[in-house]
Every structure is written in C-alpha cells, then in structure tokens.
Amino acid sequence: MRKYETIFILQPELGEDEIKSIGAKVQEVISSYNGECFRLDDWGVRKLAYPIRKFARGRYYYLRFDGGAELIAELERRLRLNEKVLRYQSVNITGEPEKAVEKKAPVVEAEAVEAVEEAVPAVEAANE
C-alpha cells in the first residue's frame, strides 16, 4: 500500500452537517477500497491566495491515508464531482519520512489581522 496526503478545500459557509457528510463520504471511499484512514484534520477557514468560484475563503481539510491507485482515482473523482469542494490536491508520500505532528497555533481570521495592522500605524503616529 502507498501512503497519501490529500488536502481539500470546502466552501466556507457549509453547515456542520454538510461537512460531516463530506467527511463520512471520504472515509467511506477509503474503507470501500480497503484503505486505512489515519487522520482527517480540520484546519479551519482561511483566506485563499486567489478567489475560487467567487469564494475568497475556504475551509481546509487534511487527510492522511494508505491505499492503492484505484482508491486515489476514485477519491479524486468524487471530490471533483462534489460542488462543495473548491480544490483538492493528493500527494504520494510513500518514500517520505514520517513527520512529527506539530501543534499549530489557532488560525487567526484575516479580518482580525487586518484590524491589528491598521491599529499599529495609529499607535506609532500617536507616539511621535
């Protein structure tokens, strides 16, 4: 079996039920092709580098699994047909060494960052 990583981006305004449904379908595909799912992580809503189908943000998911070539073909086919999936990317990591799981800081919404960036020049101007 080969090791794969897949990152897929969902529409940001999806409800929890729709997100769980997509996650269940992904895991169903993996199990039906005798694959093994190790991780399905929600990386949260992030700003996209460029708009995709008029969405400036997307909800990122990371999937780590083992499986064969038929599994990856079927998984990508289903992700491509789902209108709620904006983008996906699968990578074969069979030859790659295992990476330690890093604890990431919570995702800061871009609007909060922009508000902080706007506030910094105002503080600097006040100090002068």
TrEMBL record:
One of its GO terms (cellular component) is cytosolic small ribosomal subunit. SUPFAM superfamilies: Ribosomal protein S6 (SSF54995). GO terms for molecular function: small ribosomal subunit rRNA binding; structural constituent of ribosome. The keyword rRNA-binding applies. InterPro entries: Ribosomal_bS6, Ribosomal_bS6_sf, Ribosomal_S6_plastid/chlpt, Transl_elong_EF1B/ribsomal_bS6. The keyword Zinc does not apply. GO terms for biological process: translation. Keywords: Ribonucleoprotein, Ribosomal protein, RNA-binding, rRNA-binding. Pfam families: Ribosomal_S6. Belongs to the bacterial ribosomal protein bS6 family. HAMAP family: Ribosomal_bS6 (MF_00360). Binds together with bS18 to 16S ribosomal RNA. This is Small ribosomal subunit protein bS6.
